[in-house]
Design goal:
The protein is α/β, with parallel strands linked by helices. The protein is built from 14 helices and 15 strands. The strands form 2 sheets. Strands 1, 2, 3, 4, 5, 6, 7, 8 and 9 form a 9-stranded mixed beta sheet that branches. The chain is elongated and about 85 Å long. The structure holds adenosine-5'-triphosphate and magnesium ion. Adenosine-5'-triphosphate binds next to helix 6 and strand 11.
């Protein structure tokens, strides 16, 4: 008998989103994420989702690890099956949870009995297993109210299962339940974090990256694709729309006042991203902008860049300190790649004195002689779509 994985689902009581669509979306995401690890049976009973390997070739550990990154799951535990017999259950608990039983000072046993033909009641079985464990481990006292360790016993149709309290899952909402957005992914620290935060709220993402070859190197592009790949355990498979940006940047350098270069360049990023969003049915743009972090991220600059698009711009990092963003980047595993020293298109032709408070009027004036639609269209036509997966 194989170990199985138990999942606790999060935020089920949502206004407007019903439980059924939450569970269906999550099940589909779970199936997709489990695919590399073998064939599993996934079903939900009494607010617990059971993930059972169908045969011995399944990689249950790999599956467990993958499921800790699936949004919509708040708790995850591994359960060891055993014969439906009180002493088999006790032996299983001693063997499977030995480390935890030795480490805890207080504990209790909680039993769920789906198989009503089992000869003991839930309470009797808890008392029996609890009493024997108390005998066997000198360090343990029973505390039914606030135990450090809860030993769960489940008596189900074909077997009994033993597990300890769940480890925290990724939380959030199943990806896809809240529509789709286009995320602007640079090679920096902030935009992968911003993408992760929005995906966590149940949003499927399409990534856009602006690439300025030869000013930025093929390695810089590879780094961004690697960042996208690092996000896929959370987001599922991603498409990165790599936008050729060199021609636009060169045109802006020729024809725009230097101090407005960045803000005008960012307006083009927004327009192109919106065009991508319209093609793929996305309802918002996502950036890693953070208020006051750099000259292009003042309130005035955000207003002037945001005003060229109709779609809402989600900026989940807007109120965070750098250190808080870095903490998340480390947790999700993007930090080390983000700090690799490749240039971003934003660092090409950086003005010496960027305007901190660009005025909408002067920016419009500076753009007056540009054929904006043609420039956007040419960039969109040149997009290279790269699929990334684990
Ligand atoms: P990051 O760490 O995400 O690179 P940053 O602090 O370096 O952010 P900027 O370079 O000003 O800030 O970029 C702000 C946001 O604009 C980024 O978070 C990202 O969403 C978007 N952006 C910047 N450069 C690119 C790019 N080359 N391709 C796609 N999006 C970009
Ligand atoms: Mg950047």
């Amino acid at each position: 008998m194989n170990e199985i994985i138990l999942l606790k689902l999060g935020e089920l009581v949502l206004k407007g989103l019903n439980r059924r669509s939450f569970e269906d979306k999550l099940q589909a995401n779970i199936h997709r994420r489990l695919h590399p690890f073998g064939q599993f049976k996934v079903y939900t009973r009494q607010s617990t989702t059971y993930v059972e390997p169908k045969d011995d070739t399944c990689d249950v550990e790999g599956a467990y690890e993958a499921l800790t990154k699936v949004f919509g799951i708040v708790g995850i535990s591994l359960a060891r099956p055993c014969e439906k017999d009180k002493d088999a259950i006790l032996a299983c608990a001693k063997e499977f949870l030995d480390d935890q039983l030795r480490a805890a000072r207080t504990f209790k046993v909680e039993t769920k009995r789906a198989d009503k033909t089992f000869p003991m009641t839930s309470i009797q079985l808890s008392q029996y297993v609890g009493g024997e464990l108390h005998e066997a481990y000198d360090n343990l006292e029973v505390d039914v109210h606030h135990p450090e360790l809860t030993v769960y016993v489940e008596v189900r149709d074909y077997a009994a299962y033993v597990h300890a309290q769940p480890q925290p899952g990724a939380g959030g909402l199943p990806v896809g339940i809240n529509g789709r957005a286009v995320s602007l992914l640079s090679g920096g620290i902030d935009s992968p974090v911003a993408s992760w935060m929005i995906a966590k709220r149940g949003v499927a993402l399409e990534m856009v990256h602006f690439f300025s070859y030869p000013y930025t190197s093929p390695e810089a592009k590879e780094k961004v694709l690697e960042l996208a790949k690092l996000l896929t355990p959370y987001t599922g498979r991603l498409t990165v729309h790599v936008v050729p940006f060199t021609a636009i940047q060169e045109e802006l350098r020729r024809s725009c006042p230097e101090e407005l270069f960045t803000v005008i360049m960012r307006r083009f990023m927004m327009r192109i991203s919106e065009a991508v969003a319209k093609r793929c049915g996305a309802k918002a743009l996502v950036t890693g902008e953070c208020l006051g972090q750099v000259a292009s991220q003042t309130m005035d600059a955000m207003m002037v860049t945001g005003s060229v698009v109709d779609l809402p711009i989600l900026r989940p990092c807007v109120g965070m300190d750098k250190e808080e963003i870095v903490q998340i980047a480390r947790k999700i595993g993007t930090f080390e790649t983000s700090i690799l020293p490749y240039e971003d298109c934003c660092t090409v032709f950086t003005p010496r004195h960027p305007r901190l408070r660009p005025m909408p009027g002067e920016v419009a004036e500076a753009e007056k002689n540009l054929d904006i639609d043609a420039m956007v269209q040419a960039a969109v036509d040149g997009i290279e779509r790269v699929q990334v997966n684990l």
